[in-house]
Amino acid sequence: PEVVMIGLGYIGLPTAALIAQNKTHVHGVDINLKVVETINAGKIHIIEPELDIAVANAVKEGYLKASTTPVEANTYLIVVPTPFKAKNEPDISFVEAATKAIIPMLKEDDLYIIESTSPVGTTEKMMDFIHQERPELKEKLNIAYCPERVLPGNVMYELVHNDRVIGGVDKKSTEKAVAFYRQFIKGDLHKTNARTAEMCKLVENSSRDVQIAFANELSLICDKADINVWELIDLANKHPRVNILQPGCGVGGHCIAVDPYFIVAEYPMESKIIGKAREINNYKSFWCAEKVQTVKLEFELKHGRKPSIALMGLAFKPNIDDLRESPAKYITQKVLQNANNEEYYIVEPNIAEHKVFKLTNYNDAVKKADVIVFLVAHDEFKALEIASDKVVLDFCGIIKR
Ligand code: SAJ
């Protein structure tokens, strides 16, 4: 194969399929044998529009093969997860393991690219690691960092059309990586160095986190000030240079709720706003769970009986089935921990069943429950008719005004 792709997850698999569509032989590697078998059968293990067809075709035409071990190629792409450890410190052990696995295969002029979100300096660190094991390849390899920026749900389009930032450890590496991506990307390719490219990815997601924290902070202020925050933000955004994002029940997903910590862990004294934004967005989820508790007690005082409660949405954002780092899921868990014989209806229209939560259809839940808590702004919820005697807690702007 020309390309070895290590990591066949949410980003690695779509990227592998895209490269393969271009009639380039890709050897995909994943530690999970089940994933490997699924892909070799022309099927996929994640939900992403259009990915199934792309993978099925690539496998059928023989351009994409998966395995649990790497083989020799000319280009190696590292697209493995970089989670964080207990103290919110980044864990680059998967990048290290993937690099270690391919070091024996490297030869002069090969291209090694990390796409995984990584703390600043990771690419140089991996370069040193490679040079330690293969000193004869010093200056002879092309080593670069190129983060992805695709939005789950729109990956196959954005992979081709988004601009990319490409940073090599030297000019030759940058040029070589640009030439590689040029084959299948239509967006602009912006050249820089590896450290800037690494920081750029972290900064993009931190920027969004900080902006959402501002909206979430406003929602807390408005709750006390008895002002409708949705109306307030709509009105403020009429100003030509103001563009406030939407408050919600917190920030989730595997990117925005994680990446800012990679900056804070390395530069704790300097990252004041970035660190605070994480705190505010996490606190917002806690605050929502507490609010449910308060409303529950108020209902009991007023009606002399316990309310039944509908918890609407589990996903980390609207119209997807992804529960990773989901604030709605966290709030649901917390509310259930505080349960005291109330009836609960848990709703997630994008999932058929869940191993922990018993799910209820959204129409039934809204009819049966006394208290309706909107956690995620799924499209299905926006069209619901809600009886006027219901207590509604709208954390994500379903009702708005
Ligand atoms: N959210 C709000 N209010 C808003 C917008 C979002 O509360 O106004 C919440 C969402 O409900 C969700 C979280 O923020 O819980 C994150 O959702 P998102 O749609 O902002 O982003 P992700 O995590 O799906 O994808 C992000 C994207 N990055 C940016 O927009 C800067 C995407 O382009 C990246 O590729 C992706 O992270 C990634 O993989 O890093």
TrEMBL record:
| Listed Gene3D superfamilies | NAD(P)-binding Rossmann-like Domain
Keywords in alphabetical order = NAD, Oxidoreductase
Domain (UDP-glucose/GDP-mannose dehydrogenase C-terminal): residue spans on this chain: 310-401
Record carries keyword Aminoacyl-tRNA synthetase: no
Which example biological process does GO assign this protein?
polysaccharide biosynthetic process
Read off the SMART domains from this record.
Answer: UDPG_MGDP_dh_C (SM00984)
Q: Does the keyword Transcription regulation apply?
A: no
Q: Name one GO molecular function term.
A: oxidoreductase activity, acting on the CH-OH group of donors, NAD or NADP as acceptor
Q: Which domain of life is it from?
A: Bacteria
The record, for PANTHER family, names: UDP-N-ACETYL-D-MANNOSAMINE DEHYDROGENASE
In which family does this protein belong, per the annotation?
Answer: Belongs to the UDP-glucose/GDP-mannose dehydrogenase family.
Protein name in the entry? UDP-N-acetyl-D-mannosaminuronic acid dehydrogenase
The organism of origin for this protein: Pseudalgibacter alginicilyticus
Phylogenetic placement of the source organism:
Bacteria, Pseudomonadati, Bacteroidota, Flavobacteriia, Flavobacteriales
